[in-house]
Design a protein that fits this description.
mainly beta; Beta-galactosidase, Chain A, domain 5; 0% helix; 8-stranded antiparallel beta sheet
């Protein structure tokens, strides 16, 4: 069953059956997200859990044990286990999903949504039922570069540093100034909310409870600005340890306003 929130300016629809993702987000009558297609990685806005990004060789070590995750035909499993799983609606504003057989720990993800005025808020929680586990989390929105009216999408994102990624999109362990971008970047931007601007239509500020952002600018039709709790391959670096009663929580908020076309951000 879909979850729908709406007011005079915004209508959001979350598809529980399709990975608990925001399948549609209309603001001022304009659809902001890339629509459904055959690739579950490439549309809407979906949660990443219990890890975000690539997991090197599908392996990690935790509490003295080695684990192998994901399909054997994929070298670096991507974005966790829940993005294509059906979620259950457990309250009017809340969805929940187990991590499935690919994840060796007894846990689940929960999402909460709220719409108030010009702000849409969502919270992703990773819970442990019985045993602790390492984790990271994220949201992966696909924003359309062009709406049905107005100019092409502009991104304003001030970041101090970026994690250097190798050819496989995995961190090398180095940090570099964020002035040089590759089009697929993991940025550290504490206290700096990215702003998307569709000239003449609207501006959208994206807030997060964590300082890491993945910005994917390469597609001609879309732009991804993704709040994460940590860089890729966090399970092999410094993951958050989720314990029973102590979930990992990532909050994202989207706040919009009309754009008057003067060019300021």
């Amino acid at each position: 069953m879909d979850l729908v929130l709406q007011n005079a300016a915004c209508r959001m629809r979350v598809s529980a059956a399709q990975g608990g993702r925001i399948a549609s987000l209309e603001v001022f009558g304009e659809e902001l997200l890339v629509g459904a297609n055959a690739d579950p990685l490439a549309w809407g806005s979906y949660p990443l859990a219990p890890w975000a990004g690539r997991l090197r060789d599908g392996r990690f070590r935790f509490d003295g044990r080695d684990y192998r995750i994901g399909p054997t035909d994929t070298r670096h499993p991507l974005h966790g286990t829940v993005l294509a799983r059906p979620w259950e609606r457990v309250a009017p504003d809340t969805l929940q999903c187990g991590f499935g057989p690919d994840w060796p720990f007894d846990g689940f993800a929960r999402q909460r949504f709220a719409l108030a005025g010009n702000t849409l808020s969502m919270q992703l929680e990773l819970h442990a039922r019985t045993a602790s586990y390492p984790a990271s989390a994220g949201f992966h929105p696909w924003f359309r570069r062009r709406l049905d009216r107005g100019g092409a999408l502009e991104l304003h994102c001030d970041a101090s540093t970026r994690a250097v990624l190798d050819a496989d999109g995995l961190p090398t362990g180095e940090l570099a100034p964020a002035t040089a971008r590759t089009g697929d970047d993991c940025l550290y931007a504490p206290g700096n909310d990215p702003c998307l601007r569709w000239p003449g239509v609207l501006r959208l500020r994206i807030g997060s409870s964590h300082p890491w952002w993945v910005v994917y600018e390469r597609p001609a039709h879309a732009l991804c600005v993704e709040p994460w709790t940590a860089p890729p391959d966090a399970l092999n670096a410094r993951p958050v340890i989720v314990r029973p009663g102590a979930p990992l929580v990532l909050a994202m908020r989207l706040a919009w306003e009309s754009d008057d076309g003067d060019g300021s951000a």
